């Protein structure tokens, strides 16, 4: 099969589009012929050796894929060839075929494969962040940084479902327009961010901040939190991991809360399954709608990852084998 191969931790342009052995359906494994693989920010870090995990080489990146079951292992009871499914896979999504245990495979019926991929990691991360980590309440103010990206769009839509007032923060007029189209009550830039948040909350500050950016934006938000606020640490798309003056958390009485969706799926599998059921239900009812910026050939993975890491992407990007 054709796949994107990481032969060593190296710059993105060292990724190879080549041949790998087809995966086998052993035990409880399901082999899926991939219709779409979702592109995520951590994928680009992983292949450069900049992520928390460092798999052995060679490996195929890609943590989410959707398609059609081609083969099932002898221990698989709930799925059969021909079923359309999606999976969260630690590795292997950037390929024509991927194998995954049946416990991490979800039936998707006639849903769009690329949109379902967006629901898995991007919407899954934002859902967990706002529901289990922030305990976002109706009527609270949610500030979303990096709001035009895949997880940002998800946070906007989910925040509105949960009853929050959403302030989106994005870098350009075009991105801010996308944020308001996806439900944000107001969209602002990064200039004078602390003062703008204070102004838009009548001096109270943000109840919840969803921060996938880090750097100077984190510094501004750490000074614009409401009492009992929750500052969610999602990632560091700016490339700058900030340092927190902890005296701010003392005098302003807010919490800094880490969000590591991968750990959540491993340590709380039933809660994760319940979250996915809720997300898929919202999708089927039209309450959430992933924004798919583009669908690109699998061979273009390195170029696409470069755009994602450079914060040039809007919404979700899918690779199509």
Can you give a write-up of this model?
This is NADPH2:quinone reductase. It comes from Lutimaribacter saemankumensis. This protein is α/β, with parallel strands linked by helices and 321 residues long. The protein has two domains: 2-110 and 291-320, Alpha-Beta Complex (Quinone Oxidoreductase, Chain A, domain 1); 123-262, Rossmann fold. The protein has ten helices and 15 strands. It has helices at residues 41-47, 113-133, 150-161, 173-181, 193-200, 215-222, 247-252, 261-267, 269-284, 301-309; strands at residues 2-5, 16-19, 29-38, 64-72, 84-88, 97-101, 105-107, 141-144, 165-169, 186-188, 206-211, 225-233, 255-258, 292-297, 316-320. The strands form three sheets. Strands 3, 4, 5, 6, 7, 14 and 15 form a seven-stranded mixed sheet that branches. Helix 10 links the parallel strand 14 (292-297) and strand 15 (316-320). Helix 1 crosses helix 10, helix 2 crosses helix 3 (150-161) and helix 8 crosses helix 9 (269-284). It is globular and about 60 Å long. It starts with a strand and ends with a strand. The model has no long low-confidence stretch (mean pLDDT 95).
Summarize the structure.
Residues 10-319 form the Enoyl reductase (ER) domain. The chain is α/β, with parallel strands linked by helices and 321 residues long.
